[in-house]
Amino acid sequence: MLSEISTLLAKDFRLEWRQRAALGGMLLYVGSTVFVAFLSFSLRGGQPPAPAWNALFWVILLFAAVNAVAKGFMQESPGQRLYYYTLVRPQAIILAKMLYNALLLLAVALLGLLLYTVFLGNPIQNHTLFLANLVLGAVGFATTLTLVSGIAAKAGGNGATLMAVLGFPVMVPMLLLLIKVSKNALDGLDWSVSQGSVLTLLALNMIVAALSYLLFPFLWRG
User: Fold this and answer.
1) CA distances for 105 relative to 88, 133, 218, angstroms
2) How far apart are CA 69 and CA 146, in angstroms?
3) Model confidence over 119-145: pLDDT tens digits?
4) What is the pLDDT of residue 75?
5) What pTM, to 2 d.p., does this model score?
6) How far is CA 150 from the centre of its chain?
7) Does the structure show a pLDDT above 70 at 94?
8) Which listed site, 40, 57, 167, 179, has its alpha carbon 20 to 30 Å from 89?
């Protein structure tokens, strides 16, 4: 299983490097939205207030995550999926996709935080809590959207629209928890205040990953 996951992970990284236009477009989206936000708030005479800074940060990351993960299964033809089916186990495929997307989204999130700090300041007071929340958010977005992307790809038709429809009800509760924990980090509150929300995020990530592991083989055979 581990060898299959590592092989699939290396394959995804090679494909991403060969198709650098998609990666560049995603990075351009993050950079341009942060810069537009900077221009909008600079016209009002300063940096955004902490709640606006926090909410805008996570909204940008959410749409970047949707664009990044959507192409995971949809860029593969039915023939390619059938070929993978003869070589590796479906559990290895979904785990490799989730791991790859988690690493990709974490890199995008850190880049977005860097650009945010440069253009819009950094009001974070509890950096450890914020970074832990950022990791949970990247993993949560990756696990949820990877499974939804697989469902949309198997359904055919307009996969991007179907992915948005299926993913929105799942992503909103997670997004609200992420914004709540981030706001506590911006206010400099102690870890104990956010412990319940952090554990809930961790539980959601584990539940989605476990469901993906159990259900994806049936989806893959469909």
Assistant:
1) 25, 13, 27
2) 6
3) 888 888 999 999 999 999 999 988 888
4) 66
5) 0.86
6) 15
7) yes
8) 167
CA atoms within 13 A on the CB side of 12: 26
CA–CA separation, 198 and 106 (whole Å): 17
Q: According to the 3-state scheme, what is the secondary structure of the chain?
A: CHHHHHHHHHHHHHHHHHCHHHHHHHHHHHHHHHHHHHHHHHCCCCCCCHHHHHHHHHHHHHHHHHHHHHHHHHCCCHHHHHHHHHHCCHHHHHHHHHHHHHHHHHHHHHHHHHHHHHHHCCCCCCHHHHHHHHHHHHHHHHHHHHHHHHHHHHHCCCHHHHHHHHHHHHHHHHHHHHHHHHHHHHHCCCHHHHHHHHHHHHHHHHHHHHHHHHHHHHHHHC
pLDDT tens per residue across span 95-124: 888 898 899 889 888 988 898 888 888 888
